[in-house]
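Action item from last meeting closed. Structure (447 res):
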């Protein structure tokens, strides 16, 4: 999952609204709670590539009480257990693989709103369950995925390697859609503020391996596995995460290290730009959606009084007022989630410290140092990134190609949720041209 496109609005808090309103969405809402609706849409979108089934998610959505975090947990945990049991009972490797993928997705979803109490053991038990089911599923892929651990400076980095669909039939070869090779282009991807690397397999991994490229995911400090297992929050020097991963890829005989691509999703865009500006071993960079400063967005959406406390450096007042809003019984789910996730992923117990740390994460001072072609995506209905996607492309300069995905064809949401095939078509067609040497930079396109 990615960072939600809606954090909160000042009107919701200053007006002391007792419940979330349904905003003017371009997609059908799955809950009267805006945050629940968005995350349900994220889970539903995994149906495109084995990560969910529409009927299962829609049934859960119908049973969840809007705004009730325990209700959310109960429905998705129940669903995960039932689908996992179906996988256990099947003798078909295909049925097992599909069931375990879906169960893993539902276990991840079940824990999404539990971070308000970081002592809750379910934060860890649900994660262990999703890891177990995901491991069983990738082992049943036609070309099984591999999980390994790479050593970083003061932490370890969990990495998945998914080999390309390397069977190059005569018909595919004649059409130029695959190339026989032992060393293949490799896309290296991370998610962002809250997303897991496992879900990246569903949102983009299958599209990549089907094109004859290797797909690699990783997580660093602040992200789900490293935060849980090693207790480390986000670090701005993201090259300390990426560089060891690339070092590892250079030891493999199935990776064409002249055709490495670094990819970032949502908040991962900022991390990716910073890393790619320091590590020069990438042939291209892809950013979905363009984001250059998350702190700016949060401050624009927070109520005036909170912003004043923050800008004055009044940590005591900022923390007290944030806690008062949180405990008022009137705070929207998106407000609760974004601050819960912030404390957790930055490993702090101070709301002020979380938001202050977030100011260290920007692409300013790094974007202009990118010297390879960069694809920047934007969504016409992405109210999180707002105007930051085209501005990100402008900051990168002549190496950037910006593409606006349109809501009128269902692709305008944050990270093109629910329209991943449209994203893959446009972004990977562009990438194929880049890797083939037909580089087009400083362009703006629409679908």
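Sequence:
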């Amino acid at each position: 999952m990615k960072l939600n496109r809606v954090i909160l609005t000042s009107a919701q808090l200053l007006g002391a609204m007792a419940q979330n309103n349904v905003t003017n969405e371009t997609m059908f809402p799955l809950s009267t709670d805006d945050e629940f609706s968005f995350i349900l849409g994220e889970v539903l979108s995994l149906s495109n590539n084995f990560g969910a089934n529409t009927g299962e998610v829609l049934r859960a959505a119908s049973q969840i009480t809007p705004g009730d975090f325990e209700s959310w947990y109960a429905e998705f945990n129940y669903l995960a257990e039932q689908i996992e049991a179906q996988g256990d009972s099947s003798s078909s490797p295909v049925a097992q693989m599909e069931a375990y993928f879906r169960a893993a997705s539902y276990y991840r979803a079940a824990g999404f709103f539990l971070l308000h109490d970081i002592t809750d053991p379910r934060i860890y038990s649900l994660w262990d369950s999703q890891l177990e089911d995901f491991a069983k599923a990738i082992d049943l892929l036609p070309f099984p995925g591999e999980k390994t651990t790479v050593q970083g400076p003061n932490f370890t980095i969990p990495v998945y390697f998914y080999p390309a669909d390397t069977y190059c039939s005569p018909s595919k070869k004649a059409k130029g859609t695959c190339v026989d090779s032992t060393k293949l282009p490799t896309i290296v991807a991370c998610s962002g503020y809250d997303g897991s690397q496992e879900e990246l397999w569903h949102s983009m991994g299958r599209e990549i391996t089907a094109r004859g490229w290797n797909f690699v995911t990783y997580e660093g400090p602040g992200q789900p596995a490293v935060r849980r297992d090693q207790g480390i929050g986000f670090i701005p020097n993201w090259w300390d995460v990426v560089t060891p991963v690339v070092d590892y890829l250079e030891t493999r005989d199935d990776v064409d290290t002249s055709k490495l691509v670094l990819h970032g999703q949502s908040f991962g865009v900022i991390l990716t730009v910073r890393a790619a500006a320091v590590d020069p071993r990438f042939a291209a960079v892809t950013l979905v959606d363009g984001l250059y400063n998350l702190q700016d967005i949060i401050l624009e959406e927070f109520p005036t009084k909170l912003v004043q406390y923050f800008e004055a450096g009044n940590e005591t007042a900022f923390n007290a007022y944030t806690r008062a809003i949180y405990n008022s019984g009137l705070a929207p789910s998106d407000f609760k989630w974004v601050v819960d996730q912030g404390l957790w992923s930055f490993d702090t117990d101070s709301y002020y410290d979380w938001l202050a740390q977030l100011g260290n994460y920007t692409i300013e001072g790094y974007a202009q140092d990118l010297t390879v072609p960069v694809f920047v995506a934007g969504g016409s209905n992405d109210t999180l990134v707002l105007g930051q996607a085209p501005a990100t492309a402008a900051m990168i300069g002549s190496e950037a190609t910006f593409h606006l995905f349109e809501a009128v064809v269902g692709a305008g949401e944050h990270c093109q949720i629910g329209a991943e095939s449209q994203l893959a078509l446009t972004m990977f067609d562009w990438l194929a041209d880049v890797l083939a040497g037909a580089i087009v930079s400083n362009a703006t396109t629409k679908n």
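Note appended to the action item: Residues 4-25 have pLDDT under 50 and may be disordered.
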